[in-house]
Amino acid sequence: MKVESRNKLGSCSVKSNDLFTVLYDQVTEEPTGEVEFKFKMKASGELKEGPGAGQKWTRKPDLFDGKGRKIGKGVDIWGGSEGKVAFSVRDYFVAGTAAAGLILMLNGVQVIDLVSEDSRSADSYGFGEEEGFG
User: Fold this and answer.
1) How far apart are the first and last CA of the chain?
2) Which residues are bridge partners to 63 per DSSP?
3) What is the pLDDT of residues 72-88, one digit of tens each?
4) Is the pLDDT of residue 1 over 60?
5) Please, what's the b/e burial string for 82-95 (b: 16 or more CB within 10 A of its CB; e: otherwise)?
6) Per-residue pLDDT for 60 more than 60?
C-alpha cells in the first residue's frame, strides 16, 4: 500500500468483506439457516498483452444437465432452478478503503432441477391439493 493511502486511512485496520449473505425470514426476521453466495464471470473483454493483444473475447459458463450431459442452446434457466456450481476463488484488496475479500469466479453449472417458462408447478409456490374449484 502506498504511503499516502496508509496516512489517509490512519490506524484503521483492514475491513474484511463478507463472502456470503445470511438469509432471513421476511415475516419473523429470524435467520432461515440458508446463505446466499454470488458468483461472477466476466462475459467479454479484450486481450491487453501478448501476441493476441487487441483481440476481443467472450465466454459463458459450461452448463450440464443432471446426468452430466452438456446443455445446448435453447434451454432457459429461470429463478427457482436448483443445481451445483463449480467455481474458483480470487482475492482482492482495495487500498483506498482497506477493504479485502474473496470473489467467487463461476466456471460451470450442473442443473439438477430445471425451472423455465411455464414449468413451475403448484407445489413450487407452496400450494397443495385443496377442496374447491377443479
Assistant:
1) 68
2) 109
3) 888 888 888 899 999 99
4) no
5) ebeeebeeeeeeee
6) yes
| Spatial contact of 19 and 102, defined as CB atoms under 8 Å apart | yes
In which residue are the cell numbers 442452446 written? 73
pTM above 0.85, yes or no: no
Cell of 44: 467479454
CB contact set of 74 (below 8 Å; sequence gap of 6+):
none
Which residues does 91 contact at the CB level (< 8 Å), separation at least 6? 100, 101, 102, 103
Measured distance CA(90)–CA(41) in Å, rounded: 12
DSSP-assigned states of every residue in 31-89 = EEEEEE--EE---EEE--SSTTTT-EEE---EEE-TTSPBP-TT----TT-EEEEEEEE
